[in-house]
Amino acid sequence: MTIEELDQIAESVRTENAKFDHEINVCMGTGCLSQHSDKLRDALTQAVTDSGKRAMVRRTGCMGLCAAGPLVLVDPEETLYQHVKAENAEAVIGSLGGAPIASLQCDLREHFDQQVHVVLENSGQIDPEKIDDYIARDGYRALLTAVNDMTPNGVIHQITASGLRGRGGGGYPTGLKWGTVAKASGDMKYVICNGDEGDPGAFMDRSVLESDPQRVIEGMAIAAYAVGASKGYIYVRAEYPLAVARLTNALRDARRRGLLGNNIGNTSFNFDVEIRLGAGAFVCGEETALIASIEGKRGTPKPRPPYPAVSGLWGRPTLINNVETFANIAPIIRKGGKWFASMGSARSKGTKVFALTGKITNTGLVEVPMGITLREIIEVIGGGVPDGHTFKAVQTGGPSGGCLPAEMLDIGVSYDALVAVGSIMGSGGMIVMDDTSCMVNVARFFIEFCMTESCGKCIPCRAGTAQMHTLLTRICEGHGTLADLELLVELCATVKETSLCGLGQTAPNPVLSTLRYFKNEYIEHIVHKRCPAGVCNIAGAVEKVNAPAEVLA
Amino acid sequence: MPAFTPPPLPSDDKRWKIVNGTMRKNGFARHALIETLHTVQSAFGYLDDDAIRFVAKSLRVPLSQAYGVVTFYHYFSLKPPGKHTMTICTGTACYIKGTDKLVASAEKRLGIPQGQTTKDGNISLMTARCVGACGRAPVVLTDGELQGQMSGEEMLAQLERWAVE
C-alpha cells in the first residue's frame, strides 16, 4: 500500500458518493441503536427505493447527542433530525430537495458551535465498518508518511512538540513515554491500547471504537513504528460488544489492505494487533493490572518501578496508552505537532472528549478545546439542568475524581487546574448533579464502587475502603457521630498515602472533595439527623448530637 | 519430556469444539485462559466445575489459578442464568437518575436479591457496573437488549410479561 494507492481509494469513494444527490447518515452507536436506529435505517433505505430518489443511506457511528437520539443527518443540506422513528422515514425522504421537516429538526447550534472535533472528526460521518470511508478522509496517510518519510525519532519529536498528554486521565506527557520505550533495550516490544473504560459514567472510548475504529489502529501502528514494537494488543471491556465487533472487523480490513501485518507501506516495518477482552474489573484500567490480565492472570497491580516502558508484558518493554490518546496521533502526524499545540491551555494542549451525563439537558459526547470553562460545557453546550432544578455539583474523573460546586464552574478545564481544586481530569466522565442528589450518598456510592472493585492485594485499599463505606453508611442512616467524621478524614489520608495503585490512592477523592465543598450536608446528617436532599432514609429515633459551635460554623 | 496431550472433551456436545478452537488458535498458551473462559461462557452461559477443570487441564494452568481468575472477574458467572435476565445498570449516571430504586423494586417483585435467579429458573436479576450508555440513563438490559430511560412501571411490566409466559 502506497500513498498513491490511498489516493486512488479515496477518489473511488468520492466518485461513488458523487452519484447521489443526498447522503443520509443514521447514527448507529450504542445509544441510538437502543432506540432501534437499525430499523430506522432499513425503513429509510426502503423509502429511498420507493421514491426513486438518488440518495444514499449510511450507517455511521455516534453523533454525540445521545439525549436526542435516534439522530439522522442529511447532507449536503446539513439538516440534523432528532428522535426520528421508522414511521418518519417516508417523510424524511419526501422532504429531500425541499424544506426540512420542522417538527423533527434539531436546532442546537450552540451545542455544536462551541465544540472542536479532532478525535471525533469522523464520528457520525463515516461508516465505521468501511475502511475506505476512513481512507477517503485522509486515513492511514499519517502512517504511510511516518514509515516512508520519517525516522522513529522524528515521529516522537512531533508527538513531544504537540504537548499531548495521556488521555486516560493521568496526563503523563505522551512524547516522553514514547521516548522511554524507544530507548528501552529489547528485541521484542509491545504496544497496548487501554480500552478498559471502567469509570462508571464514561463512554468516550466506547464511542470512538464504535464510530472510528481505524483511527485507533492507525495511532497504534504509528506508535509501534516510533518505539520499535511489532505486536499490539487492544484491551476492550467485554461489556462493549458493539465496539468489539466493529474493532474485529476493522482489524480484518486493515490487514486486507496491507496496513497491518508484514512490510507495511512496502517497508521493513511489521506490526499486527490482537484484541483482548476484559472481564469486568475496574482495576484493570491500571496499567500493571491490565498487563497481568492480558497474560491471563488475575488483574492485580504491581509496584512501579519497573515501569511497563522498561518491563511490561511478559517482561518486555511495553507502551500503554488510552484509546483517546491513540486517536489523537494520526492528526498530529498529518498536521504537525505545532498545530496541535496551538489548541488548548498552557500545559494542557489539544482537545478533550467528555461524556456529559446526569441531570443535564443535552446528555452525550462532546469534544472541546482544553481550557474551556466548566460553566461553558455545562450551561451552554450541555443546556443546563432540566426540569427547573438547580445545579448542585459536577463530578469529574469518576471514582478517582471529585465533586465540584457551583462556585468552581469558572475554572478552565485542564489537568492541573482540576487537581488544584481537588478533582482530576480523569478519562472524561462528567456527571452533573442537581438539588435532588445528596452528596454524602454520592460519596458513599463511589466508595462502595471502590470497595467492590478493590483487587484486595494491598491492605490499605482492601480494608480502608470497607471501613470508609461502613462509616459513610452509618452517617447516611443517621447513626453517625462527629468522631466518625474525624475517623473518616484520617482514613482518607491513610488510604491515599499508603495504597499500592491508583485505585486506592484516589479512592478517597470523592469523600475528600464532598467534605471540602459540602461539609454542611455531612453536619446535617450527623447533628440534625436529616438529609437536606431527602435521599437518605434517616431513622428518626436517634437522639440529636450536641455539637460544639465551631463545628457548625 | 513426553509431548503434552490435551485432555479429552468433557462430552460430545458440539460447543466444546468451539472452546477447543479458541485454545488451539492461541497455541494452548497459558495466557489464553481468560479468552477461553469467555468462549465457554458465551457458549454455555456460565462456567461450571467441569468446564473450569477442562480448560485448566488443557492449558496446563493450576486449577487454583483458573478458579482464582474466574472468581476475580465480575463478568464470569459460576451459576446458570435464568431463562430471562434483567440487568440493571448501576453506573454513576444511572444511579443519579435513580436505578437504586429500580433494583429495590425488582428485588421486591421477584423476591430475590440482585445477583440471584428465581427458584423456577425463569428470571435472573443482575446489576452491571456501567454499560457505557450513560447518555440514555437510567439503563436496563432485558435479555441483553439495551433499554434507555427506563421507568419503574415499564420495568415491572417487563417482569410481568416474563412471569406469565
UniProtKB/TrEMBL annotation, chain A:
<dbReference type="GO" id="GO:0010181">
    <property type="term" value="F:FMN binding"/>
</dbReference>
<dbReference type="InterPro" id="IPR011538">
    <property type="entry name" value="Nuo51_FMN-bd"/>
</dbReference>
<dbReference type="InterPro" id="IPR019575">
    <property type="entry name" value="Nuop51_4Fe4S-bd"/>
</dbReference>
<protein>
    <submittedName>
        <fullName>NADH-ubiquinone oxidoreductase-F iron-sulfur binding region domain-containing protein</fullName>
    </submittedName>
</protein>
<feature type="domain" description="NADH-ubiquinone oxidoreductase 51kDa subunit iron-sulphur binding">
    <location>
        <begin position="440"/>
        <end position="485"/>
    </location>
</feature>
<dbReference type="Pfam" id="PF01512">
    <property type="entry name" value="Complex1_51K"/>
</dbReference>
<dbReference type="InterPro" id="IPR037225">
    <property type="entry name" value="Nuo51_FMN-bd_sf"/>
</dbReference>
<dbReference type="InterPro" id="IPR019554">
    <property type="entry name" value="Soluble_ligand-bd"/>
</dbReference>
<dbReference type="InterPro" id="IPR001949">
    <property type="entry name" value="NADH-UbQ_OxRdtase_51kDa_CS"/>
</dbReference>
<dbReference type="Pfam" id="PF10531">
    <property type="entry name" value="SLBB"/>
</dbReference>
<keyword id="KW-0408">Iron</keyword>
<keyword id="KW-0479">Metal-binding</keyword>
<dbReference type="GO" id="GO:0051539">
    <property type="term" value="F:4 iron, 4 sulfur cluster binding"/>
</dbReference>
<keyword id="KW-0411">Iron-sulfur</keyword>
<dbReference type="InterPro" id="IPR037207">
    <property type="entry name" value="Nuop51_4Fe4S-bd_sf"/>
</dbReference>
<dbReference type="GO" id="GO:0008137">
    <property type="term" value="F:NADH dehydrogenase (ubiquinone) activity"/>
</dbReference>
<keyword id="KW-0004">4Fe-4S</keyword>
<dbReference type="GO" id="GO:0046872">
    <property type="term" value="F:metal ion binding"/>
</dbReference>
<dbReference type="InterPro" id="IPR036249">
    <property type="entry name" value="Thioredoxin-like_sf"/>
</dbReference>
<dbReference type="Pfam" id="PF10589">
    <property type="entry name" value="NADH_4Fe-4S"/>
</dbReference>
<dbReference type="Pfam" id="PF01257">
    <property type="entry name" value="2Fe-2S_thioredx"/>
</dbReference>
<comment type="similarity">
    <text>Belongs to the complex I 51 kDa subunit family.</text>
</comment>
Automatic annotation (TrEMBL), chain B:
<keyword id="KW-0001">2Fe-2S</keyword>
<protein>
    <submittedName>
        <fullName>NAD(P)H-dependent oxidoreductase subunit E</fullName>
    </submittedName>
</protein>
<dbReference type="InterPro" id="IPR028431">
    <property type="entry name" value="NADP_DH_HndA-like"/>
</dbReference>
<feature type="binding site">
    <location>
        <position position="94"/>
    </location>
    <ligand>
        <name>[2Fe-2S] cluster</name>
    </ligand>
</feature>
<dbReference type="Pfam" id="PF01257">
    <property type="entry name" value="2Fe-2S_thioredx"/>
</dbReference>
<feature type="binding site">
    <location>
        <position position="130"/>
    </location>
    <ligand>
        <name>[2Fe-2S] cluster</name>
    </ligand>
</feature>
<dbReference type="InterPro" id="IPR042128">
    <property type="entry name" value="NuoE_dom"/>
</dbReference>
<feature type="binding site">
    <location>
        <position position="89"/>
    </location>
    <ligand>
        <name>[2Fe-2S] cluster</name>
    </ligand>
</feature>
<keyword id="KW-0479">Metal-binding</keyword>
<dbReference type="InterPro" id="IPR036249">
    <property type="entry name" value="Thioredoxin-like_sf"/>
</dbReference>
<feature type="binding site">
    <location>
        <position position="134"/>
    </location>
    <ligand>
        <name>[2Fe-2S] cluster</name>
    </ligand>
</feature>
<dbReference type="InterPro" id="IPR002023">
    <property type="entry name" value="NuoE-like"/>
</dbReference>
<dbReference type="GO" id="GO:0046872">
    <property type="term" value="F:metal ion binding"/>
</dbReference>
<dbReference type="InterPro" id="IPR041921">
    <property type="entry name" value="NuoE_N"/>
</dbReference>
<keyword id="KW-0408">Iron</keyword>
<keyword id="KW-0411">Iron-sulfur</keyword>
<comment type="similarity">
    <text>Belongs to the complex I 24 kDa subunit family.</text>
</comment>
<dbReference type="GO" id="GO:0051537">
    <property type="term" value="F:2 iron, 2 sulfur cluster binding"/>
</dbReference>
<dbReference type="GO" id="GO:0016491">
    <property type="term" value="F:oxidoreductase activity"/>
</dbReference>
